Amino acid sequence: MSDPSSTAGSRPIDGYIDPNFPNPNGEWDTPIIIYGYTPAFSLSLFAVIWFFLFLIVHAAQVGIYRCWWFVTFPIGLVFEVVGYIARSLSAKKDPYHLLYFILNYFFIVTAPVFLAAGIYTILSALIPRLGRQYSFVPPKVILWFFIASDVVATITQVAGAALIGVAQSNREDPTTANNILLGGLAYQVFSMGLYVILTMSFLFRARSVITRRGLTVFSIVFAIATVLIYLRTCFRLAETAQGLGGHLYSNETYFACLEFAPVALAVLLYAIWFPGRCVGSKVRVTKEEQDMERTSVAF
C-alpha cells in the first residue's frame, strides 16, 4: 500500500496501514504496521492473563516440590507476559510504534527458549531414572547442546527482527534482515527437530520401564508438549520464509493458532502434570535414589 503523501524522492511505503488507526507519526513510529495487521487487543489481553496465572501456578509448584531445575519454565512465562503486554500496547495505543513491536517480538520469541530449556531438562532427568542405555546421547550433552543451540538461534532471530524494524522505519529494503531472521529460525527448527527425534526414540525404547514406573501418562504429556513447542517453531519458520506481507505473516489467526495456542497448551499440560512431582526434585540421582523412586507412582 503506498502513501499518497510521500515525496518524489522517498521510497514508497510498502506494507500495511490501518485505515481506522491513523499513524501518529511520532519519533518511534514506522511508516507501516510491521505486524502486517493491527494486533487484536482481546488476544493480547487474554494471553497476558493466561500466562500470568500459570506463572503463579508454576512458580508455586517449583517451590513446593523444590525442583529448581524447572525454574526456567516460570522465567519463560515472565517473558510471555511482558511480550504480550507490549503487544497489547501496540493494539491499544499505537500499532506503528517500533519499540512496542521490538519488545513484543523479543520477549515472545525468547520465552520459548526458557520453556524449551525446562523441556530439555526433563529428558535429562528421565534418562538416568529410566536407563541410560535407552538414550543415544548422554544427558549432559542433550542439555547443554540444545540450550546453546536455542540461545544462538534466538539471538539471530531477535537481531533480524530489530533490523527489519529499522529498515522499515528508514523505508529501506528489509530482505537482508528477513534472511537473518530466517537463518536463525531454520537452525532452531533443525536443532529442535533433532531433539524431538531423540526424545521420541528414548520414550519408545524405554516404554516397558515407563509402564512399570507409572510414568505412561506423564511421558505422553511430555511428548505432546515437546511437539507443541516444535510446531510453534516450524510455524515461525514458514511465516518468515514467506517474507513480510506473506499470508502467514499478515494474518493474526495463524499467530493465535500456531504461536499462542501451542505454547499456552504446553503450559497448561505441565501445570497439571508438573515435572517436579512426576519425575522428581533432582535432575541427577544416585543408584540408591533411583531404587527408592521406583517405588513411587506418578500421577
UniProtKB/TrEMBL annotation:
Membrane-crossing residue ranges in chain numbering: 32-55, 67-86, 98-120, 141-165, 185-203, 215-233, 253-274
Main location: membrane
InterPro entries: RTA1
Keywords from the UniProt entry: Membrane, Transmembrane, Transmembrane helix
Bilayer topology annotation: Multi-pass membrane protein
Compartments, as annotated in UniProt: Membrane
Record flagged with keyword Lipoprotein: no
GO cellular component, one term: membrane
Record bears the keyword Transmembrane helix: yes
Stated name of the protein: RTA1 like protein-domain-containing protein
Organism, scientific name: Emericellopsis atlantica
Taxonomic path: Eukaryota, Fungi, Dikarya, Ascomycota, Pezizomycotina
